[in-house]
Write a structure and sequence with these properties.
The protein has helices spanning about 55-65, 140-150, 165-170, 175-185, 200-210, 230-235, 245-255, 285-290, 315-325, 345-360; strands at about 5-10, 10-15, 40-45, 70-75, 80, 110, 135, 155-160, 195, 215-220, 265, 270, 275-285, 305-310, 335-340, 365, 380, 385-390, 395, 415. With about 425 residues, it is an alpha/beta fold. The longest helix is centred in the middle third of the chain and has 14 residues, at about 245-255. InterPro entries: Carboxypeptidase_A_C_sf (IPR027461), Class_I_gatase-like (IPR029062), LdcA_N (IPR027478), Peptidase_S66_N (IPR040449), Peptidase_S66C (IPR040921), S66_fam (IPR003507).
């Protein structure tokens, strides 16, 4: 077993102590857990990654409104540029200005009656549809994200879709301003607001966790899976006709409103056992892409690692796992939860890859967790204390404390199937 939490896996105890801790005890301060949404709360939908289809965005925002939320959309959410479009020269966000939203303000537009902002967005004539595109320039995408996070009226920042581009935004954010806005919320006695999204948004999850010390929400997005949920929410489509959509909607409610149980069930244990610890991880490609950057996730010591991806061949998944292993990312991990691997080859071949690469860690590995890119996209709270039960095939979360304060320091343990510690 590779360091980390004091552990006993299915094949017996480990003699390896926790990294840097006597007797195998891994202590770490926990992040502040985000606050649950309530009807009437304002959420800002921004597009930090790929280009957004206006019709899909409108349908997804309508679902959020029907859930009782006041929806606003970032000024640049429907912009489009190609990957190589030169950035306009402008003052960096936050430079020379006391405005916490940066020296170049951006605005949020309300969506009365389901309308979206300028349906054409900003699209230079030179944009080519046969080339890869982003939802606006890096600076504009960052400006929308920062404005939403720093706006005290906004209770959640919801990313419209994934794709590609979030890593390019990271250097354009004023992290001091984002941290100040997070601290101001705490001083007012409130819990942090929510950052919600998945896939490419993993880059933001990792950076917000490390730099702002908050939990974040990994789940379906308005211009993605949420856009399909309107008929279920309205009752026009029975849940029995779309059980995957109904489960996605239930998971979204549970994740954002803390309305209902947040536990999810996998389909099989590639390695049995029980694990406890904060949930970390996200989309495999992004976790690997962040290695060697200032925004890389720290090693997952004492944590349960969630992994998923889409349209990646087994050899590419194997290569990324090897890279993370060689970088020490999995050192001391308490457990592994594997989500969906849509369009990623033969599931049996993938299981063999996961067993070969992750099995030697000596920790429980739960597969088939319905989160990621599949038709069932449950919402997971990254950074929250979780429990992986390889016997019951469940991944569950502890309810947050009423104050929304930081998680207590604690001893993270891996429990054997029989309950021994």
């Amino acid at each position: 077993m590779s360091g980390g939490a004091r552990a006993e896996a299915a094949d017996g105890p480990s003699d390896a102590p926790a990294v840097g801790m006597p007797g195998g005890r891994a202590r770490m301060p926990g992040p502040r857990r985000y606050g649950a949404l309530r009807p009437g709360d304002r959420v800002a939908v921004v597009a930090p990654s790929g280009p957004v289809e206006p019709e899909r965005l409108e349908a997804g925002c309508a679902v959020l409104r029907d859930l009782g939320l006041d929806v606003a959309v970032g000024e640049h959410a429907l912009d489009q540029v190609n990957l190589g479009t030169p950035e306009r020269v402008r003052t960096p966000l936050g430079s020379g200005s006391s405005n916490s939203q940066g020296s170049r303000p951006t605005s949020l537009r309300t969506l009365p009656g389901g309308g979206t902002p300028d349906p054409q967005g900003s699209r230079p004539e030179s944009v080519r549809d046969d080339w890869q595109r982003l939802a606006g320039s890096d600076a504009d995408r960052a400006a929308d994200l920062q404005a939403a996070w720093c706006d005290p009226r906004v209770r959640a920042v919801v990313c419209a879709r994934g794709g590609y581009g979030a890593t390019r935004v990271l250097d354009h954010l004023d992290w001091d301003a984002l941290a100040a806005a997070t601290a101001e919320s705490a001083e007012r006695g409130g819990a942090p607001k929510i950052l919600h999204g998945s896939s490419d948004i993993t880059a933001l999850h990792a950076a917000f966790a490390a730099r702002l010390g908050v939990t974040t929400s990994f789940g379906p997005m308005p211009a993605g899976r949420i856009a399909d949920l309107g008929p279920i929410l309205s009752g026009n489509v029975p849940t029995s006709d779309d059980p995957d959509g109904a489960d996605t909607l239930d998971g979204l409610r549970a994740g954002l409103f803390r309305d209902g149980p947040a536990a999810v069930r996998g389909t099989r244990a590639l390695r049995p056992g029980h694990a406890e610890g904060p949930l970390t991880g996200g989309t495999l490609t992004l976790l690997t892409a962040l290695l060697g950057t200032p925004y890389a996730s720290p090693p997952a010591a004492g944590r349960i690692v969630f992994l998923e991806d889409v349209a990646e061949a087994p050899y590419r998944i194997d290569r990324m796992l090897v890279q993370l292993l060689q970088a020490g990312y999995f050192d001391g991990a308490a457990g592994i939860a594997l989500g969906s691997w849509e369009r990623s080859g033969d599931p049996a071949e993938l299981d063999s890859v996961f067993t070969a690469r992750l099995g030697p860690l000596g920790v429980p590995v739960l597969a088939g967790v319905p989160a990621g890119h599949g038709p069932r996209q449950r919402t997971l709270e990254l950074g929250a204390p979780a429990r992986l039960d390889g016997d019951a095939l469940t991944l569950s979360f502890e309810p947050p404390r009423a104050s929304g304060g930081p998680l207590p320091d604690g001893v993270l343990t891996l429990e054997a199937p029989g309950g021994a510690r």
